[in-house]
């Protein structure tokens, strides 16, 4: 059978060589214009081609790098090369790119962090591997600076928290000692002023009578303030937490407030309340007592108070609510009212010392929770507090 040979003319061959040259030049231009250092190595890891960026980055001339092992620039692992080779040979459709962070070594021995993107390259001379190398010294420095700044910040926050806790304890101790020690001389003063009032009222001139009245009233108020302050600093002191049924606590509170509830025709609705495993019953009672009596005290004139007490489990915490239809609170005061001795009304409008909600806040925090209020002036308020019952 005759064999058919296709003879190519020399012109055709020349054209093909020219075309290949052009393609090669294009490839080299592309390599040179790449923003990263580009190194092409053969299957044995021998450098075949490098671009200008590689010369700048590593400090070798092209001549010093060509035909040397790529390990002189960075310790590329051979298993990575093998993996990429097999990908290239399988003609895998996935790009088969591996990204690694390695240590580059300059000619002068200086080491620096690099990010290397390795990918297989099928060429006429066989399978090659291209490595795009990026100097990430600045990125690493930035990461280190951020890490150190975070550690510093965390340390500072811890120090400040510890300092604040210590100062808080000192202040509480001071409030306790001061209010405790003030009680005795105040008892004596108010006892004698009352005696003075009882024995001499009407026997001195009217101005003296008025002055004595003022002192009696003021010392009475001071007694209440000091007792409140002492109670406040005693919250959680030396008490043990145990199993508490909130339904029983609220029932006791309502029994204690029976007269004021009847007097003001208050309607109280209570939902199913939880059983808490680690709670302070006296403190919890005081919390409910404060909220319920405030709801009655700050009722809307001419409208019968309606109070709704409820609880629901949210994110593993119990969230209690005490809702009223009272006078409400303006938005700008919603946080301020929880600060000790902060009141929004004069004593002549509503009686009180402004310590009740500070008590409530401390009690909620004692139970690992918090307290807040939502309110609409003229419509009513809902006080919420949470108790983390897992401790
Ligand atoms: P006190 O009741 O002695 O004034 P609190 O600390 O209990 O002190 O309350 C602080 C302030 O918060 C009150 O003076 C009042 O203005 C406001 N407040 C508290 N509870 C309510 C409520 N249920 N409705 C409207 N205002 C309230």
UniProtKB/TrEMBL annotation:
Domain PAS, first and last residues per copy: 23-68
Annotated protein name in UniProt: histidine kinase
Catalysed reaction, written as an equation: ATP + protein L-histidine = ADP + protein N-phospho-L-histidine
Pfam family, one: PAS_9
CDD domains: HisKA (cd00082), PAS (cd00130)
Coiled coil: 139-174
PANTHER family noted in UniProt: PAC DOMAIN-CONTAINING PROTEIN (PTHR43304:SF1), PHYTOCHROME-LIKE PROTEIN CPH1 (PTHR43304)
MF-aspect GO terms: phosphorelay sensor kinase activity
EC identifiers of the protein: 2.7.13.3
Domain PAC per the UniProt entry, residue ranges: 98-148
Keywords: Coiled coil, Kinase, Phosphoprotein, Transferase
Domain Histidine kinase, chain residue ranges per copy: 177-391
